[in-house]
């Protein structure tokens, strides 16, 4: 069992990582919430595996519950889902002091978190992340939101959960596709902050090997994210490092209508592409992109940005909507070398060479 504290003043909370924690959730929730009602927001896949156990446990602990189960997938992280959720919360008469639980992957965490941030101007919520991506990244730090057709995460808020409960055993039911996908963000953490962790990842070849070391993987990523968020909760500087590979990733996801690449896949492609560009311009130690590419390939992630399949002008137009853009500047996240990242002011011209990398 491991516990991490995210120190954000009155918005502080803890992350609990424990095998089998799902069986003890009602008891843990009782410690932090003395109200009557709990709304669980989840998706159909996760609900089928874990919904009834959680709901029944909470009912046995004396809570009145509502389960809002939505279709699985990125298309659900849409603005138009919100009224459907609000309607059900209203029917349930959830009040401002009562609790929302996000039970699922990053899609549910972001969407339910934003519903919590906006319903009645803010209802407390907790994160029970069930995908690898959500356990290492999206459940921590309070970035919640939804996608628009014109761009990813373009509507949202910074709204911290009251607690994050991580049960690594829940990953046993995750598909191979989404296990791999989460590794895109895991590799990101090694790239931006921890060369030793990156080297450790290079020694792991199979899902089984990774599951043998899952506590180290989860703890290392959560700890890096916690430290970065503590330093810059509102994403004005240091936190932008967590966006390594994401300017290209988000543009690619948007361009392909959230249907071709899952987020971690797009991040893998984005990290390799930006590092190739950066090497070409002399900002990154030569050979770094190849090393990231090799690790991504080793775990089965895509690494090639197939420019013949996309229109560069359209991709660049989407990038200009990136939330990191301030004034006339784009903020690009680059590596000096594996483990050392920084933010650099650039113009959109930085990406002109994308067709030739
Ligand atoms: N807020 C943040 O800081 C942050 C960080 C990274 C990514 N994100 C966002 O997270 C989203 C991607 O999250 P994701 O990859 O978890 O996608 P997801 O929520 O769609 O989950 C992936 C798939 O796995 C299924 N699933 C989840 N847990 C399962 C389990 N334990 N057993 C069986 N099936 C399970 C889901 O039903 C879904 O089909 C993207 O929208 C991305 O933008 C947000
Ligand atoms: O928490 C952060 O900050 C991140 O950037 C984490 C990213 O992995 C994540 O994809 C996040 O949702 C991106 O946020 P955005 O602000 O670029 O939309
Ligand atoms: Zn991400």
TrEMBL record:
The keyword DNA-binding does not apply. Its EC number is 4.2.3.4. Its cofactor is NAD(+); Co(2+); Zn(2+). Pfam families: DHQ_synthase, DHQS_C. Signal peptide: none annotated. Keywords: Amino-acid biosynthesis, Aromatic amino acid biosynthesis, Cobalt, Cytoplasm, Lyase, Metal-binding, NAD, Nucleotide-binding, Zinc. NAD(+) binds at residues 106-110, 130-131, 143, 152. Binds 1 divalent metal cation per subunit. Can use either Co(2+) or Zn(2+). InterPro entries: Dehydroquinate_synthase (IPR050071), DHQ_synth_AroB (IPR016037), DHQ_synth_fam (IPR030963), DHQS/DOIS_N (IPR030960), DHQS_C (IPR056179). Pathway: Metabolic intermediate biosynthesis; chorismate biosynthesis; chorismate from D-erythrose 4-phosphate and phosphoenolpyruvate: step 2/7. It comes from the Bacteria. Residues 182-325 form the 3-dehydroquinate synthase C-terminal domain. GO terms for biological process: amino acid biosynthetic process; aromatic amino acid family biosynthetic process; chorismate biosynthetic process. Zn(2+) binds at residues 185, 246, 263. GO terms for cellular component: cytoplasm. It catalyses: 7-phospho-2-dehydro-3-deoxy-D-arabino-heptonate = 3-dehydroquinate + phosphate. CDD domains: DHQS. It is found in: Cytoplasm. One of its GO terms (molecular function) is 3-dehydroquinate synthase activity. Residues 68-179 form the 3-dehydroquinate synthase N-terminal domain. Belongs to the sugar phosphate cyclases superfamily. Dehydroquinate synthase family. Catalyzes the conversion of 3-deoxy-D-arabino-heptulosonate 7-phosphate (DAHP) to dehydroquinate (DHQ). This is 3-dehydroquinate synthase. It comes from Trichococcus collinsii.
């Amino acid at each position: 069992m491991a516990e991490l504290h995210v120190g954000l003043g009155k918005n502080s909370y803890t992350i609990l990582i424990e095998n089998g924690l799902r069986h003890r959730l009602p008891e843990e929730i009782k410690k932090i919430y003395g109200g009557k009602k709990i709304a669980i927001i989840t998706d159909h896949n996760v609900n089928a595996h874990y919904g009834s156990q959680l709901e029944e446990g909470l009912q046995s602990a004396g809570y009145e519950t509502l389960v809002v189960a939505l279709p699985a997938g990125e298309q659900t992280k849409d603005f138009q889902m919100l009224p459907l959720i609000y309607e059900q919360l209203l029917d349930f008469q959830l009040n401002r002091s009562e609790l929302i639980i996000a039970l699922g992957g990053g899609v549910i965490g972001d969407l339910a978190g934003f519903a919590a941030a906006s319903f009645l101007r803010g209802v407390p919520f907790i994160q029970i992340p069930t995908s690898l991506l959500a356990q290492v990244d999206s459940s921590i730090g309070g970035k919640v939101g939804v996608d628009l057709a014109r761009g990813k995460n373009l509507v949202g808020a910074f709204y911290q959960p009251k607690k994050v409960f991580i049960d690594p055993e829940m990953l046993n039911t995750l598909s191979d596709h989404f296990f791999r996908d989460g590794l895109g963000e895991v590799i990101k953490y090694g790239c931006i902050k921890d060369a030793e962790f990156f080297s450790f990842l290079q020694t792991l070849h199979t899902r089984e090997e990774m599951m043998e070391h899952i506590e180290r993987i989860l703890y290392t990523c959560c700890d890096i994210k916690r430290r970065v968020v503590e330093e810059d909760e509102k994403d004005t500087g240091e936190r932008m490092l967590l966006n390594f590979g994401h300017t290209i990733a988000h543009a690619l996801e948007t361009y392909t209508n959230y249907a071709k690449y899952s987020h971690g896949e797009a991040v893998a492609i984005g990290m390799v592409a930006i590092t190739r560009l950066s090497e070409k311009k002399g900002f990154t130690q030569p050979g770094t992109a190849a090393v990231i590419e090799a690790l991504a390939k080793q775990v089965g992630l895509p690494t090639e940005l197939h420019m013949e399949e996309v229109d560069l002008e359209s991709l660049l137009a989407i990038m200009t909507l990136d939330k990191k853009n301030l004034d006339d500047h784009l903020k690009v996240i680059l590596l000096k070398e594996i483990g050392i990242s920084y933010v650099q002011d650039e113009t959109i011209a930085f990406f002109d060479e994308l067709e030739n990398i």
